[in-house]
Amino acid sequence: MRVERWSGDRVRERAGGLAELLTDTVASGASVGFLAPLRHAEAVAWWRERADAVATGRFAVWAAVDDRDRVTGTVSLDFPAKPNSRHRAELVKLMVHRSARGQGLGRRLLATAERAAAADGRTLLHLDTETGCPAERLYRSAGWTPAGTIPDYAASPAGELRPTTLYYKRLGG
Length: 173
Hints:
Aminopeptidase, 5 helices
């Protein structure tokens, strides 16, 4: 399994494979911003919009690709545009295909994004995730600190309002 940072052009070219990962993630019940069932065309459109943000440097995407060249995971960083926020980034869309879970890929993707953020001079990362989801174990074990929980923050893929926990991690020190 290789993990690569993709350019905006590469994200656009591989939007179909990224969309397959996103639809699988939503179908498995993960709360990543979409309701089920997520149509493939909607997922492709979402990734193509991200490609434009990658091309302008506002967003970074890493993809895990297996030996059959299938996208099995992603992680992204969203960089704020405000001058007083250039020291931080938001970690978004850490996803692992159901067929690749339990093999350490999520941890590898998380570590990749953390290293890249630190190399880019970011000293703080933050994220939000559904309270009680399996990803919380990963974040806590990787040194992320819970900052608080917001009730009824986002709808699950099934449409039920769920709480979200905010996490942060200081980098490089």
